[in-house]
Amino acid sequence: MQGFLLSLVAFILAIGILVTVHEFGHYWVAKKMGVKVLRFSIGFGKPLWKRISGADPTEYVLAAIPLGGYVKMLDEREGDVAANELDRAFNRKSVWARSAIVLAGPLANLILAVLVYWIVFIVGITGIAPILGAPLPGSAAEEAGFTEGDKIVRIAEMPTPTWDTAFVALLDNIVENSEVLEVTVETDAGATIHRRLPINSRELLADQGDLIAKLGLQRWWPTVDPVVGGIEPGGAAEAAGLRAGDRVISSDGQPVETWADWVRIIRASPEKTLQIELLRDSSTLIVPLTPRLLQREDLSIGFIGARETQSQKLIDEKLRTVERYSPGTAFYKAIQRTGNMISVSLGMIGKLFTGEVSLKNTVSGPISIAQFAGQSVSVGVDHYLSFIALVSISLGIFNLFPVPMLDGGHLVYFAIEAVTGKPVSERIQIYGQQVGLLLLAGLMTFVFYQDILRILPS
Questions:
Q1: Of residues 23, 308, 323, 356, which has the active-site annotation?
Q2: Does residue 364 lie within any of the structural domains?
Q3: Is residue 9 in a domain?
Q4: Is 148 one of the catalytic residues?
Q5: Which domain holds residue 409?
Q6: Which of 15, 99, 362, 400 measures 20 to 30 Å from 264, CA to CA?
Q7: 148 and 250 co-located in one domain
Q8: Which value, to the nearest 10 degrees, does the dihedral of the CA atoms of residues 20, 21, 24, 26 take?
Q9: 3-state SS assignment for residue 180
């Protein structure tokens, strides 16, 4: 319940910030263009709070449904306009002024992303250094010469101080249909080596899964003994009688050498009773343990609610890192990160239309986004801010889609008007709105359905 509330609050706060910034973009440019703004609303539905203020009065509204917002401007198409205010009506402005007002919303989201990333890079964002474990036997990574302990320092031209940046660089190369991944690594001995890893973008994006593993690479993780460090209340481990300090010897007669071995066995055994041999206080005992089912995306895995505590010190010493820059460098990095994410997003959209990726693997609905919000804020404020920046980029790009009812649809109408010299007829615009409403309703239904599938058991 606590996790649900955290996700809900984090989601509402993030959406509130993003919608406010988006609508403020429209509002600010409309004011600069001399358009009278009648209402600035965050949310839809019944107003929870409203206030009229300003020398040129505008009604400011906070409404009940926090999934969007709008700026209502003076417009002859929506009601009578006094003769002395005709020059302040939106529809009376030039096509370029109207285009600027509409474009300002998505641009405000992209600017917000840059500013948030800038703050994050100045303060510093924690991450895990991209150090590799042993490559998978027989894989292209093994043939390319990758070895355990290699630290990825650059992919193509992009520095990779953390796994997050390495993942962005990898996606950037995939959407560009690169056939070879140029990877610079630093070995355990301190040598810098350039390795070339063949990749097939279509195969990597064919289905969900760990892109790193698909390349034949593995993340390095400390090897620790299979000793239980802690038990979660109400979990399968507690129900079976496991205690902190228990050392796992075997499972169904299969020896367990490391904690990673133990995790693999548990994950592969959802709802299957295992006979676990334990060492407790110099005595051995056998207990039945039935891992519970945990659904993750398209995977069904076992979960018992036990954790180890030995690796934390090793992780802090070797893996944990902070990506931090001076204000000037941080601003450059913020622009670069925003540009990379825009490039990756547009590339994925392009591959969606060519059939190289499926819609269910490229879109997330409100439930998934709320889960990501909760996960990021539980990690730290730095990761939550990065989440907001990423969703802000997505919101800006989405609103530029050439679909009626979105900002991009209005820009298409204005482009036609600029070419033909006359506005698109109201009849066509009404038809366009109906089509746009159907498309958006269909998309929302699809993403909600996918969200529900992700959280329900098979």
A1: 23
A2: yes
A3: no
A4: no
A5: 107-124+326-458
A6: 362
A7: no
A8: -110
A9: strand
